[in-house]
Amino acid sequence: MRALEEYTVENKTTRVLIFDTAEEIAEFAADAVTYAIRRKPHLALGLATGSSPVPLYRKLIEKHRAGEVSFARVKTYNLDEYWLMDPASPLSFRGFMRENLFDHIDLPEASVHIPAGDAPDGEAEAVRYEAELAELGGVDIQILGIGSDGHIGFNEPGERFVYGTHVTALTEQTRRDNARFFNSVDEVPTHAITMGAGDIMRAKKCLLIATGKNKAEAIRKALLEDPTPACQASILQFHPNAVFLLDREAAGELEMKTEN
Ligand code: F6R
Predict the structure, then answer these.
(1) How many CA atoms lie within 13 A of 252 on its CB side?
(2) Is the dihedral of CA 137, 143, 148, 150 positive or negative?
(3) Which of 50, 111, 144, 171 would you label with 192, given CA atoms 20 to 30 Å apart?
């Protein structure tokens, strides 16, 4: 799958590929992940939840069913988990991953790494997860979405970048954005355990997927404004191998800039 267009950003490190549809983005990303697993069967794959990567996960399941890829030796590391949240709940990120990927591929349960949402001491759980990531030394490929407020993982806009895994309070915006998975916004947990910006930056390659108009402003800030913790995804400008996979709507504010 080839991108419709490549958009050149000033730092020239971040690649920005623009596609017509979410399906085409998924195909491109699935090809990249499959290729990487074929080259390195014990790949460490960083995963995200939310709507953006779901078409990618569907493609990976298809490829697995077609015998094109095996996850038998892959290890997965999710970005984040709600805290406090029962990992057995379908609303947990672990539940989301089971439903959208894990239950349909040959990934051993023991190879799944996700912070424990039910850990009574969230900070201690964050330290434990960080130690796992540190031992790994960074995932090979990190799949990312982006919040409408520019968050990656659940690193919310703030005054600084946090390096390691930590407990974070979700912003009202994020809780509203995620309310679609729950009966009401009041049921959305108030906190999450998330990889820090530093953990994400340690990935050898980042693939950020964004579709739809409500991501356009965050994408513009992430790519075109000076890196700032007010838009956490902007730290990716310093990543040596970050690729943004966008549809036309998410790239809307970039295109305006090229046309002017
Ligand atoms: C999810 C995560 C979040 C999402 C972001 C976008 O694990 O870390 O950063 O990637 O909130 O969510 P969607 O894709 O649902 O718009």
Answers:
(1) 11
(2) positive
(3) 111
Atom of ligand 1 nearest to the CA of 215: 16
pTM score over 0.90: yes
- Class (C level, CATH) for 14-210+237-243: alpha beta
All structural domains of the chain with their residue ranges: 14-210+237-243
DSSP state of 118: T
| Cβ(149) – ligand 1 distance below 6 Å | no
- Residue 55 CB–ligand 1 contact under 6 Å: no
pLDDT one-digit tens code per residue, 166-195: 999 999 999 999 999 999 999 999 999 999
CA 182/CA 40 separation, integer angstroms: 38
Residue 254 pLDDT greater than 90, yes or no: yes
Residue 84 preceded by cis peptide, ω within 30: yes
Report DSSP letters for 65-97, one per residue.
Answer: HTTS---TT-EEEESEEEES--TTSTTSHHHHH
Strand ordering across the sheet containing 80-83: 80-83, 191-194, 166-169
pLDDT tens digits, one per residue of 90-107: 999 999 999 999 999 999
CB of 168 closer than 6 A to ligand 1?
no
- In this prediction, residue 1 carries a pLDDT of 65
Alpha carbon distance 260, 257 (integer Å): 5
The reported pLDDT for the residue numbered 258 is 47
Max Cα-Cα span within the chain: 53
CA dist 114 to 6, 76, 91, 198, Å?
34, 8, 14, 17
Residue 200 has pLDDT above 60, yes or no: yes
Q: Which residue is closest in CA terms to ligand 1's atom 8?
A: 153
Q: Token pair of 172, please?
A: 């009202």
